[in-house]
Design brief:
By secondary structure, the chain is α/β, with parallel strands linked by helices. The protein has helices at residues 26-35, 92-104, 125-139, 153-158, 178-182, 202-209, 226-241; strands at residues 9-11, 21-23, 43-47, 53-60, 66-75, 83-87, 109-114, 146-147, 151-152, 165-169, 190-194, 214-217.
Length: 244
């Protein structure tokens, strides 16, 4: 069942059950009372990434504090996706966009990967986690993708569990249609690897091609920006072997 997009959704990092009265932190209370100007008795939806989604009633306590009365469960927790997203960090604005879209597309884990052509060599994990939560609130996700530690490509591959297949978005792959290749993949526990602006180096492509747990796919006849390629690839994967 899809989320009710008419109601404000809020992530709460605590156990949820009907009948509880939950005190909001200062930032969330400020957001509901001052930014959104919600009034006493307003209905919202809350989730924590574990217990499903619940209705809740806003109960202001002055101008700066508020609590939520937790009501009935509106959606049960859905099974966690089995697709991880591995990506080379982009410039900050596009980096945040990429993390938001990966969250909306329903990935299980988001891991920054440093490659030969990566332009950004440090990521703000707290900022990315905030973007993940905001995107999950807005798009109706019940599961919250885990943010993995940033890692170099060589280290990622050397520690990789061979039973988990990596789908490698390869700008040099022959052909235009990834669907034919994706339909032949039998594994359900997967990761999608998307490169940086400028693509993967020849050294990296050779390294990936030599690994039995890596499957290379093309992304059509046109050159795509890295963030566009990521959304296109996630769409293709979800439609062929994902949960669409």
């Amino acid at each position: 069942m899809r989320a009710n997009y008419k109601l404000q959704r809020l992530f709460l990092d605590l156990p949820l059950s009907s009948g509880e009265l939950v005190a909001l932190g200062k930032e969330q209370a400020h957001y509901l009372l001052t930014v959104l100007r919600l009034e006493d008795g307003t209905q919202v939806l809350v989730f924590n990434g574990r217990d499903g989604e619940f209705s809740a009633t806003l109960r202001p306590q002055g101008k700066k504090s508020a609590s939520l009365e937790i009501g009935d469960q509106t959606r049960e927790q859905a099974p966690q996706s089995r697709i991880d997203f591995l990506f080379a960090p982009l410039k900050v604005g596009r980096l945040e966009y990429l993390v938001q879209k990966a969250t909306e597309m329903g990935v299980r884990k988001i891991t920054p990967v440093f490659t030969d052509h990566t332009q950004l060599h440090k990521v703000n994990a707290a900022r990315l986690e905030a973007n993940i939560l905001e995107a999950a609130e807005q798009c109706g996700n019940l599961a919250i993708p885990q943010l993995g530690d940033a890692v170099k490509l060589e280290a990622l591959l050397s520690d990789w569990e061979p039973a988990r297949r990596i789908i490698f978005c390869n700008e040099s792959e022959a052909g235009n249609n990834p669907g034919t290749i994706l339909n032949d993949i039998a594994e359900t526990d997967l990761a999608l690897l998307v490169g940086p602006e400028g693509g993967f180096s020849e050294r990296e492509r050779e390294m990936l091609a030599a690994l039995p747990f890596v499957t290379s796919i093309p992304l059509g006849p046109r050159i795509l920006r890295a963030d566009t390629a990521a959304v296109a690839a996630l769409t293709a994967v979800q439609m062929t072997i994902g949960d669409w």
